Amino acid sequence: xxxxxxxxxxxxxDPSGRPGVADFLAEFQRAAAELAASFADVDPAATVPACPGxxxxxxxxxxxxxxxxxxxILLSGKRQSVPAVLRTTSWSDQYAGxxxxxxxxxxxxxxxxxxxxxxxxxxxxxxxxRRRLHETTVHLADAIQAGGGVAVIPAAVAADGVDEVFGxxxxxxxxxxxxxxxxxxxxxxxxxTGHEWTLTPAEAGEPPAIDRAKATGAAVISGTASDLDLxxxxxxxxxxxxxxxxxxxxxxxxAGRATP
Length: 260
Hints:
The protein is an alpha+beta fold. Helix content is 45%, strand content 8%. It contains 7 helices and 5 strands. It has helices spanning 24-41, 56-76, 91-108, 126-146, 155-175, 225-232, 247-255; strands spanning 186-190, 196-200, 209-211, 219-223, 242-245. Helix 1 (24-41) runs parallel beside helix 4 (126-146), helix 2 (56-76) runs parallel beside helix 3 and helix 2 (56-76) packs antiparallel against helix 4. The radius of gyration is 18 Å and the shape is globular. The two termini are 28 Å apart.
């Protein structure tokens, strides 16, 4: 049975009820083009608010390295070392080249092929188009914020980003020793897309159970899909969201390590 936390092939229905994105590759290419443009427009020495100690140049190097890393994994199907990056052109041009290389690798490998990934989910190539879309989306927000702008993630992409946090990163962080701060049942609602989730605490050593039918629990956290996604990645303060019910439980979850 397919793992509902892994990425289905683009365009195929997802029986789990996960929000999904119609075409992960197309959305990745859109976000990557916007990020390349941001690297051209924003001062490389500008600080990145959500990444202490980082400049935009550091962010660009991280993304160039990350896209090359993901492409090498896709093409080999195996775990690879993260490459060191030497700047050869402008950061914008170099990132445009590496993101194009990753897009080519995504097109070259069937999403159902066995392929390593870092998370405790199904090891299939389709994981990477979804993961690099959301990685690029969050770091595009970083670049926009570094330039003094306000980042907004397209609603459908953001809703799937929220679901990725719950289905991929809560188990991932637990495996790394950071247990999710879900001490009571919590509901999460994207007010613009209509997607809802309920997280229910599990036994010690297990990630919370995810119900995608309705948001319910001791507290319900709501906001636009973009605000939810950015708050889960600590790119916006928790005060951006609306909390009904037990605010202590909700704020403890939002302050916890749901993501790296």
